[in-house]
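User: I'm curious what two different proteins look like when written out as structure tokens. Can you demonstrate?

Assistant: Sure. I'll show them one after the other, since each token string lines up with its own sequence. Here's the first protein:
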Amino acid sequence: MTNQQKLNKLIELRTEAKMGGGEKRIEKHHAQGKMTARERIDLLLDEGSFEEMDMFVTHRCTNFGMDKTKFMGDGVVVGHGTIDGRVIYVYATDFTVFGGSMSETMAQKICKVMDMALQVGAPVIGINDSGGARIQEGVGSLAGYSEIFQRNIMSSGVIPQITAIFGPCAGGAVYSPALTDFIMMTEENAYMFLTGPKVVKTVTGEDISVADLGGADMHSSKSGVAQFKVEDEEKGLLLIRKLVSYLPQNNLEEAPLMDCSDPIDRIDDVLNSIVPDSPNKPYDMKEVIHTIADRGEFFEVHRNFAKNIIVGFCHMNGQSVGVVANQPNYLAGVLDCDASRKAARFVRTCDAFNIPILTLVDVPGFLPGSGQEYAGVIGHGAKLLFAYGEATVPKVTVTLRKSYGGAHIVMSCKQLRGDFNYAWPSAEIAVMGAAGAIEVLEGRNVAKIEGEEAQMKYVNEKVAEYEEAFSNPYQAASLGYIDDVIEPRNTRFRVIRAFQTLQTKKQSNPPRKHCNIPL
């Protein structure tokens, strides 16, 4: 065979490999509104940057006639490329090859890129569209999944791991996405569950659809398993590109610094009147975030889950910052089980990847009731407290209005090693609201007073006295728990100046094998 013939053979094999399961299967795949694995990677990465690996790998299974059907690449496309010039490792299961089912060799391909990503310190992005374990391979497929899971665990907090779900993801396959930092699902075709509707019907008698059991709507709003829900694959891949821009390559680096033409000393007069005079009237905390962020841009995470707390990324003078903020517009901004674990997870993600944390506080307390207590609100609240107390990244806290009781503590208070704790003049930092406090403190005295009108007058006087003493930021400031009371319109400048001051912060936790956060 001549050299030219060898080159022709290489070109022929590459062409065959890039066709995956063949033209008919690709057409069927497209008819469902789905891209192929390579099309997804091409859209995700910078044009022309993808370098594919293990294109010629095939499965080694001989059971059930599998030896008679082989496809090069064997159901997953792996390699590396760049996003905005930064190195990214990627793998995408190919549904046109055996339904994207996981074989032992597929797992080996995925593990190879995960190992390389960990060695060079680069993010890993997995695109999942798979029928699950390849049944013909039995425990070999399960062992392959386990190898992937182990690498997810070893990479956790070291390199960013992002998963896109563009199709089925069921059974043991769900654990790899669950071990990653961020999960994104498409509305139409994506679903995740441990056991499907048929098994659920057989075992429990419950009749439920695929979408209700494990669709994007459910996981992004009820279970909280998925941080993002998108309309289609193209929007999802562009969202991942945006997400990566806020993250560093690994835990030893800082997030990229963006050019910023937005003045740091920009005055935002709207903030001086955004908090209503009535302490019980809601307002939208997102307006505050958009106002102080560079160019008004805020990249929200977990938008549809636990809406009483907001988490996401923005840039402040070009620096990537994680934002955690109570939302008075939803459930008055109270903390509950879901809000606590949502925020705790985000705080730990930011801390793992050296992203400073800005906390905006307006929280009346924890949601009361037996439902919350039975669901373990104590443990979930402790997760948030633990996350803030353990975090060593720069932490700036601004209290806008209410900050009561235990909820005050868990929202990055000074005693949880908050670096700069500011308050607006409208801040109320106390054990509880004035009316509730007086009911506890003066209940017996009120009962001794004759006449409802006289009782009301006495209560109002005591409430006013309590508000004067405690429903303001100045008692906390007098004790040094608040570093300064700031004018709202200057918030952007004060926060940026604080983070600039903290750029050289060095703080470490005691040596230990690992912490034991309440799970």
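Here's a second, unrelated protein for contrast:
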Amino acid sequence: MKSSTELRALLRSIDHKGYPAYKSLGGSYQFDRYLLSIDHVQGDPFASPSSLHVEVLQREAGFPANYFDRDYVRVALQDFLTRRMEEQFAAYNFKAKGSGKSGLLAISRCGQEVLERSACQIAPNKIILCFHVGFPAFGRTINAGELEKILFDFLPKCVENSCFLRNLDSRKVKACIDLAEDQEAVRQYLKEHKMVAFVANGAVLPRKSGVSDLPMKDSVPFVSPASMEVCIPLPHAGEKKGMGIRQGITLIVGGGYHGKSTLLEALQMGVYNHILGDGREYVITDDSAVKLRAEDGRSIRQTDISLFIKDLPNKKDTRCFSTEDASGSTSQAAGVIEGIEAGARLFLIDEDTSATNFMVRDEFMQQVVSRNKEPITPFLERARDLYEKAGVSTVLVAGSSGAFFYIADKILQMDCYKPVDITERVKKLCEEHTSPRIKAPDFLLPDFRRVLQKGFQGFGNGGPSAVRQGSGNSSLSAGRQESRNGGPSAGREGHEVSAKIKTFGRDSFSIDKKTVDLHYVEQLADAEQTSALAHLLCYAIGLQDGRRTVQQIVALVNDTLEKKGWEPFCSSYVPCGLARPRIQELYACLDRFRG
């Protein structure tokens, strides 16, 4: 470790030299109140910016232990500090001049959800903030004076105003921690009272626009039907009233543009906590919930979909089904089974994005096409058993078929964005009509012993057990990121090879030109989660041995992330720009990988 004085001397010694001389700055430097590490230096001023991090000792930062001694408050504080650093960087971004990305100061741009990110990591003894800096140059000639301005003038001010409690608004910090504790209290209440979701009275569900996740102004606030209202005691906000959705089958109906899908979209993102002012702070959903939809063209690997599809005309075995081009119904059937394998306790379904023949078959159609000629058992006939025998509840938005009324435990009608409990009235109407077939025989879940085979095509003889970090093309300001990164750095298994990762915003990434399309994995909240999934997938492939099941490998990956953080999934340093996905998205990633 060197001193900040030595860093200043190094900078002045390389001034006006060729850009590669910046590489000599790599290492750690002790400043008065923090440690600065230069982890990776960009190849030229037009390449992805350099990666740096600072470490501040907890005894200097001054945060009380109860602000980071539990995971959910620690993540909330990390999120708060990341947002604070982003605000500070905004005041100095590109104030140092030069060509290309010279003068860039960037850290993760946080959305409305509170996510665990590599940008800020809090340990019992220190706080680590990772970020990017564009090292200044004129052309490809080093401008050390401008970098000196960044590292010795701009950065110290940003760190002082972001990492030390005495320089922060203590009321805002406490409000952040209090909200996290209240949100956790709601989640615990749901578990204890056999509920799957809660929507607080006064919640703002509509978003500003299709490209903005901010709350819509002047929207209708949510108000629970009296029959579904619960009152949850919270440690800081007092009693919070709102709609509690109980385990079982809940149906949401109503006319077009009355708020059915808006409610479902709020529920699907309720698996994450939201920041104060979002409007959905107290829209809380079982954190294992999976949004299901049809996904034409996706790949399916060795999945037992016989619960829904069997006796195909081509005699293909649906107990171990694979395809590179799934139909809508087949993809949704696989989604149900994969969701159960991933531990989902709640399915969220919108009829608008579902395959009609997978969801329901009316009586007239069954008369025209007899059952022995139809290989699909519709979801309508399996939903009740999924709850009663597998413990998986369903919240379903429906608008075209009344058959779902017969299986619902609770029926909500959205009327001008206001929910109305119409269960009793609809059940009386059901008694006046002939009931459709709502149960199918032979309910048997798969054993979930799918094995990740050793030697994925395109990865050498044993899959990438290590992937190396390079300069690549990764930029926080760009939607496309490229690197050589990920893979276990210790306890390696299989044949060690290198794999090239590219990420393309939130929707997809590729490993050695093999694309993983996550466009329809709708509960991914941030492109940084997609980047993290690429690294986690590389690590998971490195664990393949021909014996471990998918469940065992995902458990190993998740356990490693839980206990050791980001470091095992990276090579020489932990980069800014990763956000932790849920275990359900990791399963979705593995299931869609075409390697």
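A detail about the second structure: The CA atoms of residues 501 and 511 lie 5 Å apart.
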